[in-house]
């Protein structure tokens, strides 16, 4: 864990990898490989992991599988480094997942707004208030593309002002929001939520990155993040240009398949995906494969 994460007691700071979940050929979860993957990520410079996010295919896991994924990550690298996604259709269920994460030893959780319908502001506030009762620090996850609920800066400031959230994973792609969030809620930690706006949000003052592509390329991705937040734009700019053909897949519908394919190419276990996701089209697979092989040839793997 980076020094500022420890001294500020803000375990969501730094590079937290939204982990892909290794599946066997029969689509069962390979918990042994998952534990090894979490350990490997930390050994390669990442600060922690985010299990049960979209990249971890949480929506298609059984409750038993979902709980075991969290417990496996904690056993592998320690709860301080684990920030599970606790999204659910109902607030009561999301609270139960936050309590499960708390009881497993996690130091924080990540929470989407209500996503079963287009929730209004009062519903969003009530949702975060309910889950906050679990007593574990919450990082909000703003993904208006998928949830159709937009945590705009003004709403984030209200959630923070009520004490419900401590940070936000920003996935809107609108980097201008970083400055408005800093004005309205200067103590709210902004976390980079999409790989392909990393440099822009790092320059704007982001305190962390909930990351996708470190699943395949952790060392190069961490080097990019560290250079970007340190203001070393020569180093960061070069790495960003080299990695961007891959990073932009994090904002595409097929991000899980793309990242898992890159993992397979570099010698990790990405493996298949569960339905309703389907394999990449041949042209998509070719694009990911070529971009990954270029990164490997450039010494970034």
List its salient traits.
single chain; 13 helices; 301 residues; DapA-like; disordered N terminus; 7-stranded parallel beta sheet; Dihydrodipicolinate synthase family protein; alpha/beta; lyase; Aldolase_TIM; 7 strands
In a nutshell, what does this entry contain?
This protein has 301 residues and is of the alpha/beta class.
Instruction: Tell me the span between the first and last alpha carbons.
Output: 22 Å
What is the string of helix and strand elements?
HEHEHHEHEHHEHEHEHHHH
- The tally of beta strands, per DSSP, is 7
User: Helix/strand-derived class?
Assistant: alpha/beta
Count every helix, treating DSSP H or I runs of 4 or more residues as helices: 13
What proportion strand? Answer: 5-15%
Helix content: 40-55%
Give the oligomeric state.
single chain
Indicate the low-confidence ranges by residue numbers: 1-7
Radius of gyration: 18 Å
| Order of adjacent strands in the largest pleated sheet | 2-1-7-6-5-4-3
Shape assignment: globular
Largest sheet: 7 strands, parallel
Query: Overall mean pLDDT score?
Result: 96
Can you give a write-up of this model?
With 301 residues, the chain is of the alpha/beta class. The protein has helices at 3-7, 31-43, 63-77, 91-104, 121-132, 144-147, 153-161, 177-184, 198-203, 218-229, 233-247, 255-265, 282-297, and strands spanning 14-18, 48-50, 109-111, 138-142, 167-170, 189-192, 208-211. It has a seven-stranded parallel beta sheet. Strand 3, helix 5 (121-132) and strand 4 (138-142) form a beta-alpha-beta unit. Helix 10 packs across helix 11 (233-247). The longest helix is centred in the last third of the chain and has 16 residues, at 282-297. The protein starts with a helix and ends with a helix.
């Amino acid at each position: 864990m980076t020094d500022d994460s420890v001294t500020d007691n803000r375990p969501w700071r730094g590079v937290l990898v939204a982990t892909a979940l290794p599946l066997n050929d029969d689509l069962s979860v390979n918990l042994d490989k998952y534990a090894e993957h979490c350990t490997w990520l930390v050994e390669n410079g990442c600060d922690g992991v985010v299990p049960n996010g979209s990249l971890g295919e949480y929506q298609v896991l059984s409750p038993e599988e979902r709980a075991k994924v969290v417990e496996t990550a904690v056993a592998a690298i320690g709860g301080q480094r684990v920030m599970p996604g606790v999204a659910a259709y109902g607030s009561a269920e999301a609270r139960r997942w936050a309590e499960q994460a708390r009881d497993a030893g996690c130091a924080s959780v990540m929470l989407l707004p209500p996503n079963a319908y287009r929730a209004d502001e009062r519903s969003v506030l009530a949702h975060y208030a309910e889950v906050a009762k679990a007593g574990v620090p919450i990082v909000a996850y703003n993904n208006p593309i998928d949830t159709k609920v937009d945590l705009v800066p003004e709403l984030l400031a209200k959630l923070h002002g009520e004490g419900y959230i401590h940070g936000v994973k920003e996935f809107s792609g609108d980097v201008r929001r970083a400055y408005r969030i800093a004005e309205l809620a200067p103590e709210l930690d902004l976390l980079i939520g999409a790989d392909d706006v990393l440099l822009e949000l790092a320059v704007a003052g982001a305190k962390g990155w909930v990351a996708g592509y470190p699943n395949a390329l952790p060392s190069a991705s961490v080097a990019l993040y560290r250079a970007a937040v340190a203001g070393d734009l020569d180093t960061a700019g070069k790495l960003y240009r080299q990695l961007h053909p891959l990073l932009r897949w994090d904002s595409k519908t097929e991000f899980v398949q793309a990242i898992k394919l890159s993992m397979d190419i570099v010698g990790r276990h990405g493996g298949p995906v569960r339905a309703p996701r389907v394999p990449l089209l041949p042209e998509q697979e070719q694009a990911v494969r070529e971009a990954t092989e270029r990164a490997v040839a450039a010494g970034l793997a």
